[in-house]
Amino acid sequence: MKEELPLIRFVKRKLSDEKYEACAVFDVNGDGIADIVSGAYWYEGPDYARKHFIAEVMPIDGYHDDFSDYPMDVDGDGWPDIITGAWWGRTLRWRRNPGEAGVPWETFDIDECGCIETIRFYDIDGCGVPEIFPNTPGEPQAFYKLIRDADGKGTGRFRKTVISEGPSGHGMGFADVNGDGRMDIVLNEGWLEQPDDPFAGPWRFHPEFSLGGASVPILGYDVTGNGLTDLIVGQAHDYGLHWYEQRLAEDGTRTWIKHLIDDSGSQFHDLWLADLDGDGQPELITGKRYRAHNDGDPGAHDPIGIYYYRINGGAFEKHVIDFGPAGEASGAGIYFWVQDLTGNGYPDIVAPGKDGLYLFENQGPEEKDQA
């Protein structure tokens, strides 16, 4: 009989009633302590009780035009800036960190790239600085590389590379699908194979599956341990969380077998893999994005929550971190964050959303406190 692993305990804190749907963790003010950024404000660590203004963020139709708060030193001055963008502004932007408390951050346009569902980041060329990958469902998939000077410092300028020829669709992620050591891009209707030179125009498209209104990100992970990369996918605007098993025939033909993880919830828009309990194996972390399409999605009025799943070779085991009505429980927003903020060795969870900004402090497995 398989030994049952101890549950992971979390302590929930509500940091703010602000209704921004993205967040990030980084050292904003250079004091060596991680801070939390979400929308128009940053929250000073280590207690996150002091809130500082960043810049005005446009409210529109129950949302805010900010679906990413990712840190990047864009102008090379040593201060981490913010990469942002969202649906209505149709523009990828960066906010300049002034390096001084109380001074508003200037916002600069990178590109009018189309409606942005959200943004993810990956160092596609191994340069040490991640490239920017917005999910723009109505536009071809593209990425943006920060142009750096001879000293390796950012110049405030970016180079755009378009890698698909048709609309990218809802959903995007990173996975080495074919095992060649190069990271490919997964979209909802297939995957883009990275060539030897990632900047060499359109990548080869493989229309091998249809994932629906997929999460951002779509996760690549070898669920079964057989050496093939599988996919983990949430339905961002419907019920369902699934994994797709990759199979290879002797002739090299690739097929995908769909498996259910959880059909009890809807609006699984953001997913993370992280080792929450320190056993060397990642857990899947996700939850409901509260009012993802305001009240227009299936399950929009259901309770909200955040969950972790032990993967167990494909026999996913669900555990509830938080669950209940909005205002009492937290969802996961469009871009939540997982990082150890308390220094105890266990990753914590920062959860933004229209239900407020929450911090779930990871106390580790239950048995650690029982002696």
Short description:
With 371 residues, the chain is mainly beta. It is built from no helices and 30 strands. The protein has an eight-stranded mixed β-sheet, with no helix packed on it.
Written description of the protein model:
The chain starts with 7 loop residues before the first strand and ends in a 6-residue tail after the last strand. The protein is mainly beta and 371 residues long. Strand 6 (59-60) and strand 7 form a beta hairpin. It has strands at 8-16, 24-26, 35-38, 41-44, 50-53, 59-60, 63-64, 70-72, 81-84, 92-96, 106-111, 118-122, 131-135, 142-148, 154-162, 172-175, 184-187, 190-193, 204-206, 218-221, 230-234, 239-248, 254-266, 268-274, 283-288, 304-310, 317-324, 337-339, 348-351, 357-365. It has an eight-stranded mixed beta sheet with strand order 19-18-17-16-20-21-22-23, with no helix packed on it. The radius of gyration is 20 Å and the shape is globular.
